[in-house]
Design a protein that fits this description.
This protein has a domain of 56 residues: Orthogonal Bundle (434 Repressor (Amino-terminal Domain)), CATH 1.10.260.40. The model has no long low-confidence stretch (mean pLDDT 91). It contains 5 helices and 2 strands. It starts with a strand and ends in a 15-residue tail after the last helix. Helix content is 54%, strand content 11%. A two-stranded antiparallel sheet has the order 1-2.
Amino acid sequence: MGSHLTHDGIEIVAQLPPLHPGEVLREEFMTPLGLSAGKIAKACRVPRNRVERIAREEIGITGDTAIRLAHVLGTTPEFWMNLQSSFEIATARLNVGTEIDDLDELNLAAA
């Protein structure tokens, strides 16, 4: 998930923050297509502040919003939900850190 840089022969891994679906909405749709949050919200029939908060990366994408964005922007609901899921997993991995290594694995074959 990080990019690899070298400095004096030493490899440095730069950790990029997880990609929020709001960044994709903003950078791939709103900015290049000149779409405002209000215009998208009106087309989706949702409150303007929902789209604004997603674009500001304050809230995530719900199933309902994914279906609406997909319809009005010509994508699929899975596109938006996959972005959201990937963001949540990447964020959780950063938050959990090495604690995950200390968890015991259950022996399901013995159950």
